[in-house]
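Dear support,

I submitted the protein below through the web form. The confirmation email said the job was done, but the results page showed an empty box. After a refresh the structure appeared. I'm attaching both so you can tell me whether what I see now is the final result or a partial one.
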Amino acid sequence: MREIEMTGKTVEIAVQAACDALGVDRDDINVSYEVLDFPVKKLFKSIPARVRVTVEEPEAAPAAVSYTHLTLPTTSRV
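What the results page shows now:
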């Protein structure tokens, strides 16, 4: 799982910037986001939106193990 926090003037801009940084399409089924802070405009200052975008990566299948190259230990009989 990969995730990144990003800010932007709006939530949409922040989510798109995070998706671009992660190299994924926003419409991908494995992409989800959480709004951490909504944008706020104050008298002399504006606070940007802050989001966390998470990409769920499918787990890789375990590699098949081949036992054909192994040899069994030999025992000597007396």
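Response: this is the final, complete result; the empty box was a page-load delay. Residues 64 and 74 are 26 Å apart (CA to CA).
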